[in-house]
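Hi all, long-time lurker, first post. I run a small reading group and we've been trying to get comfortable going from sequence to structure in the token notation. Rather than ask abstract questions, I figured I'd post a concrete chain and ask someone more experienced to write out its structure so we can walk through it together at our next meeting. Sequence below, copied exactly:
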Amino acid sequence: MQDILAADTELGREALLSVNNIEVIYNHVILVLKGVSLEVPEGGIVALLGGNGAGKTTTLKAVSNLLKSERGEVTKGSIAYDGEPVQNLDPSELVRKGVIQVMEGRHCFEHLTVEENLIVGAFTRRDGASNIARDLDLVYSYFPRLKDRRKSQAGYASGGEQQMCVLGRALMSRPKMILLDEPSMGLAPQLVEEIFQIVRDLNANEGVTFLLAEQNTNIALRYAQYGYILESGRVVLDGPASELRKNPDVREFYLGMSESGRKSFRDVRSYRRRKRWLN
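-- Answer (accepted) --
Happy to help. Here is the structure in token form:
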């Protein structure tokens, strides 16, 4: 635990991703994001937190330019990656620049083997088969379970193995930044811990920057260095993860803890009338 806590430092590094006051509208009428701003430093792990419908996935898709496939668009604000505006780029151009989104729901190509799924991640690369083979070995070093299942169809893999598969596929593109959407969804606690440990190792050893959207606030704040809490399309609170974990509102409304101990949702269901950061 100490090494995780030591990672909770102030983010003083140069921003790799800057999202400045963006608004997102679906179908020309539905306003989903209402002035969201955030920064992700190069080499950092930043958590985007909040409940269902808060706008986490929409924020990730705004960055990766996948909104148009769902009739959404960024109507205000700006998004810069590595110092350059990117909101008008084709998603494939962003992939070539090193930005990969791992979608919610473990979207494997079920009819392909695990190894074929991984190799698909190298589709945009032009640096030769030997480099791709080397990176495949690297992926297997982080996900030894995938090596054991490499010849099996991905559709028959377990939920945890599929999550590892899509993360490994993203690594095969040699990303600088991974946008990771709800990695804990539908997984047993032990597997969730394993996935987040791998995220931390990839960040520390390979220098991959992560912006992760997650409902499991407890584990996200243990592994991230900084966090943003979204509600109804707005950032309502942000700060270093170590401070957010100590914040009484976050402890009560997102971690289920208060000064009197753990509470159930029933105990705090009136939270919308009581949040101090919305006053």
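A couple of things your group might point at:
The first strand starts at residue 15 and ends at 26.
Confidence is low (pLDDT under 50) at residues 1-11, 268-273.
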